[in-house]
Amino acid sequence: MLELKQISAFYGNIQALDRISIQIPEGSIVTLLGANGAGKSSTLKVISQLLPIKSGTMVYKNEDISNLEPNEIVKRRIIHCPENRQVFPKLTVEENLIIGSYLRRDKDQIKKDLSDIFSYFPILKERLKQYASTLSGGEQQMLAIGRALMGNPKVLLLDEPSLGLAPIIVNQIFEIIQEINRKGTSILLVEQNANLALRIADYGYILENGRIGLEGRAEFLRNNDEISKYYLGGKSHAANLY
Amino acid sequence: MLLELKKVTVSFGGLTAVNNLDLQVDEGMIFAIIGPNGAGKTTILNCISRFYTPCSGQISFKGENLLTKKTHKVLASGISRSFQNVELFSKMTVLDNLLVGLHPSLKSSLLSNAFKTKKNKQEEEAAKEIAFEILELFDLKHHANEEVRNLPFGIQKMIDIGRAIISKPKLLLLDEPVAGMNIEETKKNAELITRLRDEFGITILMIEHDMSLVMNISDRIAVMDFGKKIAEGTVTEVQNNPKVIEAYLGEVQEDVGT
Amino acid sequence: MAGQIIIGGLAAGSLYALAALGLILIFKTSDIVNFAQGEMAMLITFISFTFLTVTKLPYFVSFLLSLVIAFIFGMAVERIFMRPVQKAPILNQIILTFGLYMVFRGVAGIIWGYTPVGFPEALPNKHFNYVGITITINQIFIFVVTTILMLGFYLFFKHTKIGLAMRASSQNIATAKLMGIGVSSVFTRTWGISAILGGIAGILIAPVTFLDPNMMGEVGIKAFAAAILGGFTSLPGAIVGGLLIGVFEGLIAGYVSSELKSVFVFALIILVLYVKPTGILGEKITKKV
Amino acid sequence: MKIKRLQILFISILLLGYPLLVGFSSYFIYVAGLFIIYAIMAMSLNLLTGFGGQISIGHAAFLAIGAYTTAILTLKLGLPFWLNLPLSGVITAIVGFLIGLPAVRLSGHFLAIATLAFGLAIPEIMLKWEGLTGGFAGLFIEKPSLFSSDTSFYYFTTVIALIITWLILNLLKGNFGRAFVAIRESEIAAEAMGVNVSLYKTLMFSISAFFTGIAGSLYAYFVGFISPHDFNMNISLIVLAMIVLGGLASITGSILGAFILTIIPQVADRFPGFTITITGAALILTILFLPNGLISLFNYKWKRKKTENKQLSLEG
Amino acid sequence: MRKWLVNSLIMIICLVLAACGGTNSSTTSTKNAKEKSSVKNSQGVTDDEILIGGWVPQSGPAAQWGILAEVYQSYFNKVNADGGVNGRKLKYIAIDDEYQPSKTVAAAKKLVEQEKVFAILGTTGTAHNKAVKPYLTQKGIPVVAVASGDSAFVKPAVKNYFALQTNYDIEARIFSTYANKELKAKSVGIFYQNDDYGIVYRDAAVEELNKLGIKVAAQESYNPTDVDFSAQALSMKKASPDVVFLFASPKPAASFLKEFDKIGGSAERMLTYTSADSTMIDLAGADVMEGVLSTTWVKSLKDKDNPLIKEYVDQISKDIPKQDPNSVFMRSAWAYAQVLVEGLKRSGDNLTWENFIKQMETLKDWDGSLAYNVTYTSDYRYGQTSVKISQFKGGELVDISDVIKYEP
């Protein structure tokens, strides 16, 4: 459904992505893995057009969307939930959620989505009138995901939803991600915690220094010790120590 | 004992970042603090380097109370640090970055600086020599006169460490020294850290996520979770601590176990 | 006497507050201090004056017409000049708006000359006396307009989707883009709106300062002072800052020295900033290590 | 570094030979003298703002304090000029130190506005303090007998300017300069490296004020007459514009900026009413098209030449 | 190496260009000056041209004075259209000094040394004129009609300086005498601008009032840039003087009068000649201005039959149609230029500074300009000290007295 073909991108003079090709089939969970600075977040930024594409094309539902403005991407219901939560600290929880539906005009559906989100994350309903800055890290992550869901995504780009969260909350969030996926949203998941991500993903890409080092079905990647040892560096190495 | 934290608690607006922490670092050790993001690790470093003041507890260094010292006096007392996302002076050259690390030890006055007296010249020359020694050690000599912002991240990280050790501290605080580095660079850095301890006698307190590095070179490891220390010990002790496995490596452990 | 001084101070203060609103609006959304704000207001006032005298339109018609032009003018300034420096260092932005200030003032001088002319008041000039304190209907009008504008914008920011989008853009540009907000068009519109605010300020201030290219000089500086004192990000802060300065300088002029009133105002600002570096109603800026 | 030395050397030879070049015309020497004085001021502001990262929009106030100190010391106390010159610097430096104190707590726009307030307040105080300053009527200052003609005082000014340039370059190269730039780049890291950030910020203000005070003293002697008209907010902004126009954190850039913004009004004064429009337009165009200042034009060309040469040699 | 070469090349080009610009203009004028004249004229004079210069702020805080330059040019247009002065056309150079004394110094040097003008006409700003006085005195170039009424230019008389507009000091004394004699004032309040202009008035008025035994009930000052005068108006009302003197420029004077009227202040109000025109009615409104007294030293446009007035109105409406010819600035400027040209006419073909100064001193109660009775002698350089008292009545300013002459 969404396809990146030979995409390259730069931060100033520094190359962030080098001819990346990725496919996200409808209804799937695809994960991007790799070390810090490998280009995972940059890939998401390229899709949401926060980072301009230098070369290569991006196709969504047979339409070339390589040169659109970020709001055009959002209009096509490709929603990016950025790293480090990035909630608007001086907006209330409610306002944060409303701003997530900025481009939508379907008032009834918005209401329904809002109640869906409250069923996923009941805590948000309790905190509705609080400033987002007063939430805990886990709550902020929930808010960020909730806010992204308010855009009624067809494709959801999730950047490290587990970052800095206690395992119990991580489990909870990953279950919700699967739930969302089951309802028909395709997901591109960026994770540092490879094993965690590969557990729920259908397909995975491993990035190294802005290139795709390896790709394959999740089970294949999960069970390939050599590969995970090499590409996942310390994480799997440490894991192997147990 | 070189550094000792006693019952240190830090909180920001109701949120407790570090809770009642005790920590002891002996001289000549490589001491690692690990734990998930947001566990309060960087906060500890910031307390030791006096950017934060804990709400309660004590920190002493070489038996001296560190909490009475101002931030800019910490380096002179023998504690230096590197930064998580490299806080280099990006529009300065590599050489100048290192020279700022020598700031407290340069004694010439404003006037002798402005008039470039002989004493000042000699001092500057001597400082440059030291800087070049460090560059030699890091194999960065050819970058000496380049602006830091034009260099790759890996090299910037090295310079960050170089700037921290140029003043020959007793204790070096490293905040994720290999984050964003590839395997090669990580290896190189691991060697370097060990050398710093062995050849220069610098005690090292580091925060790191890269377990290969931590497990390979640390003498002692403390594990933090949600502001609390949940375990401390040698590599094997920590690795076999079920609390650690559950809190920090939980998900992974389950996978590997099957 | 003190009562009258305070009334006079409040009247002057509401002028400062009015002029400060546009400054704050721009700073709040795009983090730019617009040194040309007063000069933009002056240009719009001249345009309104041209409608009044050359085309002989009625007061409120030319008022509204010039505000329409103000909106377009503000947006054009953002598009042409400010867009390219959006990410530039503060200093470049300051110097750019300073350059605009010079050009606007110079161009106005070339077109309309520097001889001051009278400008009609919004309402027929009547004044009331109450226990020896005099107040004119236009002073009340300015105060009411300023308060309504402040409240209006407060509600606009709080309760409309565009207002929300503006607040979101001011907090985090990248994430705002991810919400589908056209951040750049938000900035453009902000400049348009702030030019309207400037226009309203200019047209209401002109009867007091008279109309010439230098008309906003003193008021502009006091507006800065008001904005800073109030915290520069807070709309109610503008009113608090403006009124405080108006009354304070009135009292200094009345009881200490009329020439030193500005010096005392500046000393007050430095003092306030020293005690509370973000102004009276400013938000606390936290630094991350 | 070497290139910079040569540049300065060349500029100094040019400046010293300049009176010959213009046939000792008192007008041209006067304008050149103003340029040199503004160049000193621009360099000292650049030290503070370009290198140290502390914005000041009230620098004309320091110029005013230097100029008035000289005038008052000469007229009221009858002190000789070799004493006045350094004293003006010292007194201005003390004021600079006091202004630097709040600056420690402020940054960015708030510092800008605080210094603006200072810059606006000083001329008004000069105005009010009539007994000492002559108010708007101003004060006349005779040139010192040793340098009584425009030309000889021009030479004196040039030599002082060259010395100040040398001192500033030395400072920037040494420990203090590194600390200043370090503060601009990262206050946190500077603090961690043992730089006493608060102290150094006030120090920067003092040093910058010191040199500006000297410029003020030279100004008083050179123009021969001072009044609060000469030290308004526009002057502060123009000097700020000089350093941005020439190139932040570049000494040659400051000199270039001072040169251009002293010359523009002299050329533009024959198009009455267009002076500020032309100056303003020059500022806008520079910011839009040369955001790193005019100096980047030279650096860029030079760099491109270098790479071109490299390519050529590769092909060859 | 190449970098500094490029730099230095550009520097050289700039400087050489600047230098050439300067030498070019000077060579042309000296070359022209050399042509056949039998008498050796001073600089700025050729067989068919006389060069006149001056500075006026055309931008900056005092840019409203910039209009003076246009009036000078307009008058010279008229003279040139009538055939010039003894066959020579007048050429006028204005320099914008932005109301900064340091730039005024540059302007003066430029006019004298680069442009090589014959005389300097109607230059603005008391401080600014003072700043260049030593230089111009030393050069000896004729300076006609300094646009400032400060005593520094007439007391003591300086050989090359010719003032024209009524001296501030003198006007303040005329105010005081009038308040005493005609208004029978017991107390006077003074509202003045806190600068070289207002303070001269204040000092003279206070001295004269004390002499006359009139109480100075209040002295309220303001800064030239101020916009809010409510505090001053209030203090003035509280002091309740019989007469208020306003030593202020038009904008503040209008604001103050409005404010004073609003809070119910009542007193006779006397306004300096700087503000004595219809601008005040425009700014403050006819109601507020009703009854306000002023002085005028230039002839009123009321006297339409006077050929001097007619020629003024005709020429100004032609050259500066945008402006109201009634403006006191413009009438004054016209008078300045008239006096200069009269001096040039009397100098005939002998256009040296020496002769010009000598001929200027032959003006005795000369009534050929918009000013009344212009006189210069070797130690009397006031030009004139004659005023009429005028009053705002029914939306216009009318003279209510004959010419009053004050002997300094």
Automatic annotation (TrEMBL), chain A:
The ABC transporter domain, residue ranges: 2-234
Protein name: ABC transporter ATP-binding protein
SMART domains: AAA
Alphabetical UniProt keywords: Amino-acid transport, ATP-binding, Nucleotide-binding, Transport
PANTHER family: HIGH-AFFINITY BRANCHED-CHAIN AMINO ACID TRANSPORT ATP-BINDING PROTEIN LIVF
The family this protein is said to belong to: Belongs to the ABC transporter superfamily.
Any one GO MF annotation of this record: ATP hydrolysis activity
Pfam families documented for this protein: ABC_tran
GO biological process, one term: L-amino acid transport
UniProtKB/TrEMBL annotation, chain B:
Lineage: superkingdom: Bacteria
One Gene Ontology term, aspect cellular component: plasma membrane
Pfam family, one: ABC_tran
Start and end residues of each ABC transporter domain: 3-251
SMART domains registered for this protein in UniProt: AAA (SM00382)
GO biological process: D-alanine transmembrane transport; L-alanine transport; L-isoleucine import across plasma membrane; L-valine import across plasma membrane
MF term (GO), any: ATP hydrolysis activity
Keyword Nucleotide-binding: yes
Swiss-Prot/TrEMBL keywords: ATP-binding, Nucleotide-binding, Transport
Annotated InterPro entries: AAA+_ATPase (IPR003593), ABC_AA/LPS_Transport (IPR051120), ABC_transporter-like_ATP-bd (IPR003439), BCA_ABC_TP_C (IPR032823), P-loop_NTPase (IPR027417)
Name the UniProt record assigns to this protein: ABC transporter ATP-binding protein
Lineage: Bacteria, Bacillati, Bacillota, Bacilli, Bacillales
UniProtKB/TrEMBL annotation, chain D:
Keyword presence, Cell membrane: yes
The organism's place on the tree of life at top rank: Bacteria
Signal peptide, first to last residue: none
Cross-referenced InterPro entries: ABC_transp_permease, LivM-like
Location of the protein in the cell: Cell membrane
Ranges annotated as spanning the membrane: 27-48, 60-83, 89-122, 153-172, 203-225, 237-264, 276-300
One of the record's GO cellular component terms: plasma membrane
Sorted UniProt keywords: Cell membrane, Membrane, Transmembrane, Transmembrane helix
GO molecular function, one term: branched-chain amino acid transmembrane transporter activity
Membrane topology of the entry: Multi-pass membrane protein
Name recorded for this polypeptide: Branched-chain amino acid ABC transporter permease
From TrEMBL, chain E:
Ranges for domain Leucine-binding protein: 50-393
Keywords recorded for this protein, A-Z: Signal
Coiled-coil regions, chain positions: none
Pfam families: Peripla_BP_6
Gene3D superfamilies: 3.40.50.2300
Transmembrane regions listed in the UniProt entry: none
Database matches in InterPro entries: Leu-bd, Peripla_BP_I
Signal peptide bounds: 1-18
Family under the similarity heading: Belongs to the leucine-binding protein family.
Protein name (database record): ABC transporter substrate-binding protein
Species name: Neobacillus rhizophilus
